[in-house]
User: Which sequence fits this backbone?
């Protein structure tokens, strides 16, 4: 889950210097959360337990407990037999209770998904191998522009154009677009519910966030190629567009159909001209060159360890793939013969050539002493 410093400017801080007052932050955000009608955000949704944490301490139910390795990142976890939303106030400090409430609702919806047996998850490791099809990216950028226009102008015609282009991509690139739809189902849906909460809490801040998302869809930069990340924005805005046109969002957790497939958007049969943008090919080429350089430098300078293992934990927002190598910026968890080992540093994994998940070894900074 992402947030922008500008969204929370002018708020009272509970972070004084290096001292993070987690109980104060918990009390402040809990007051905001108590104003929400969770069932109105999504039928059957309710407030889940949550925790605010740093690397060394956790505030759960307003009480402090020592830090635990399980409480890593901003996500939903299973803890003591129940699902729990967590936010790391050290890695991603938020000094606005209203913004923090919105972010926690996003994570709470992930709890709700898990509690209802959600299975429509994208394969993060398969998404790392998303094909470099420039024509597909050209179409995807046109699709993003139509979606941004539809939300910004409340324009149904632009929404139909968006659906026409997406339907074409679903036919031409079925497997990879299915991964996008699954990412939107998980992350876009959670963000949509979070944004509806923010809309109820503070309409101005809701407008600021959605305006930022519109600009992200229109941006002529590498975000276009970060399929998982951009699905936060496209999935959320697509659902908000349906809201704006009076359509009730269907999301049957038991169905194999994604949220987009459960909420079909009518479109005209007349073909739409796809405009080509020079940045798509040039920006993609620059990204590939830079990634190859990073991986090559790591391989040349880091120590190699042979290791037959399965990738079982990772930060999907901070990793990329080059050929048979996966670069993980912060950490990775490996299942080695049934034992989970965590590497708490940057690492380059070498994949088995026939797998997206099995590795034969890895490179990381040489250990001294």
Assistant:
């Amino acid at each position: 889950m992402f947030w922008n410093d500008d969204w929370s400017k002018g708020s009272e801080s509970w972070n004084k210097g290096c001292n993070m007052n987690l109980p104060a932050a918990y009390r402040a955000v809990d007051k905001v959360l108590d104003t929400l009608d969770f069932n109105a955000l999504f039928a059957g949704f309710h407030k889940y337990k949550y925790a605010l944490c740093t690397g060394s301490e956790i505030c759960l139910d307003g009480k402090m407990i020592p830090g635990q390795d399980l409480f890593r990142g901003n996500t939903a976890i299973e803890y003591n037999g129940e699902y729990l939303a967590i936010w790391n106030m050290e890695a991603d400090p938020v000094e606005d209770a209203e913004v923090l409430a919105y972010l926690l609702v996003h994570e709470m919806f992930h709890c709700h998904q898990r509690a209802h047996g959600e299975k429509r998850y994208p394969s993060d490791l398969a998404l790392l191998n998303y094909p470099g099809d420039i024509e597909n990216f050209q179409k995807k950028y046109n699709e993003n522009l139509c979606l941004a226009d539809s939300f910004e102008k409340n324009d149904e015609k632009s929404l139909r154009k968006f659906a026409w282009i997406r339907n074409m991509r679903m036919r031409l690139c079925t497997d990879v677009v299915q991964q996008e739809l699954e990412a939107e189902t998980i992350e876009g849906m959670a963000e949509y519910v979070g944004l509806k909460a923010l809309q109820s809490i503070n309409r101005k801040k809701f407008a600021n966030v959605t305006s930022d998302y519109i600009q992200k869809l229109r941006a002529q930069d590498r975000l276009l190629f970060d399929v998982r990340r951009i699905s936060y924005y496209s999935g959320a805005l697509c659902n908000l567009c349906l809201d704006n046109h009076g359509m009730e969002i269907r999301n049957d957790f038991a169905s194999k159909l994604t949220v987009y497939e459960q909420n079909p958007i009518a479109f005209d049969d007349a073909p739409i001209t796809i405009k080509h943008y020079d940045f798509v090919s040039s920006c993609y080429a620059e990204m590939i060159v830079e990634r190859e350089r990073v991986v090559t430098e790591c391989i040349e300078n880091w120590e190699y360890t042979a290791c037959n293992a399965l990738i079982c934990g990772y930060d999907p927002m901070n990793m990329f793939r080059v050929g048979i190598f996966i670069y993980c910026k912060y950490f990775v968890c490996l299942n080695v013969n049934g034992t989970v080992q965590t590497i708490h540093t940057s690492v380059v994994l070498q994949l088995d050539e026939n797998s997206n998940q099995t590795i034969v070894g890895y490179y990381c900074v040489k250990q001294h002493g």
